[in-house]
Amino acid sequence: MSPGAVRIALALAALAAPGVALATNGYFSHGYGIKAKGMAGVGIALPQDALAAATNPAGMALVGNRMDFGADVFMPRRSGEIAGNGGIPPFGVPPLNGTFSGDGRDAFLIPDFGYNRVINPQLSLGVAVYGNGGMNTSYTTSPFARMGGSSPAGVDLSQLFIAPTVAWRINADHAVGVSLNLAYQRFSAEGLGPFAAFGMSSAPGAVSNVGHDGSTGVGVRVGWNGRLNDTVSVGATYQSKTKMSRFDKYAGLFADQGDFDIPANYGVGIAIRATPALTIAADVQKIDYSGVSAVGNSAASLFGGQLLGSTNGPGFGWRDMTVFKLGASYQVNSALTLRGGLSTGRQPIPSNETFFNILAPGVIEDHVTLGATWQLGGGRELSVAYMHALSKRVNGANSVPPMFGGGEVNLRMHQNSIGVAYGVKF
Hints:
By secondary structure, the chain is mostly beta strands. The protein is built from 6 helices and 15 strands.
C-alpha cells in the first residue's frame, strides 16, 4: 500500500472517530460502502468497491486496483414514552410519565474509505476504514429527571475499524481473504446519576457524567467468494468476537467492570446475474449480541439486587439478530447503474427490556434503499445511496420494575440517510 493511501486512511479514521452514530441493525450499519448501501447492504457475494473488506474480505481479490471515499449524512429520530408509572413515594419521587425526545443531536456525518491494489494475479492488498455505532441518544429533558437525574441525558457509543486486508485468488473461480480489524470505540453517558445514587452500581463514581472514554482491541474477519457458473456467485464471511479493553471511566455501568466487547457476526450471500444488465443479490447476516455481557445480559438482575458493573452484571438485554437483505443492480447503459434494496430482521430489544433501553432504542427492523453510480470517464465514478428505515414502535410489557413505580416504557425510532462516494480505478 502506498504511503499516501496510509495517510488518507489515518486521516479518515481521525475524522470518523468522534461522529459515528448508526443504529440500523441494532448498532451495526445496514451496509458498508455507498454501493452496497444502495442495495440494502448486500455484499457478501457481490463486491463492488474497496469497502468490500468490511463485508467479506475475499471480495478484495475481485474489485481490482481502486480507491473509494464516501460519506453518509445519517438522521435518526428516536424517542421514549413512560406510561402508567406510579413514582416512588417513599423517596418522594413523582410519576415518571411523559414522552421524551432523544433527538438532541439529530444528524451525523459518517465518512468511510477503501483502498485496494492488485500485487499479482493471485494476491491483492488493501485497507477499509468504516464504523458502527448507534447507542446514541441525547434527551434534552431526562427521562430520569424526577428521580434526580440531570439533563441532558443519554449515551454515545462509536466504533471505528481500520481493516488491513489480504485476499488470494485460489483459481479463476474462488477467492479467500482475511482482514485484521483494528478496533477503537468511544463512549460517554450523561444523566444516569440516579442509578449510582440509589445504590445500584458497584462503582458509583464510574456511572455517568465523567466524559468520554476510549477502548481498543483487535479481531479478525475471514471470507470466501466462489463463482459456481457464469450466472451465480456465492460467499461466506465470519468476524470473530473482538475483545476490547475496558471503559475504566464506566466500570460502574457496564458488566464486568466496564467491559464492552464487539460481538461476533457472520453471514452467507448469493449473487445472480439474471441478465447482462441485471444482478440480483441476497445476504443473510447473524449478529451475536447475546455473547457480549454488557449488551446481552438482562437488566432484570439489576432490579433483583445485582449491581451495575459487577461480574456478569446487568446489561441491555439484547437478543441476537438475524438480518435478511435483498438487492438489485441494473446497468442502464455504459454510464449509469441503478440500485435498490430491502432488508428486514427482528429488532434485538425484548418488550420486557425497554426500561433501560430508553437509553439505546435500537428497534429498527425494515430498510428501503435506492442508489446509483455514474461513470465520469478516466476510471472515475460517482455513487449515491439513500436509506429509509421504517418507523418501529416497541411497547413495553412488565418493563418498569415495581421498585421504580411500575408501568411501561415504549420505544420508537425511524431513520433516513443519504450518502455519496467518489471512486477511482487505476
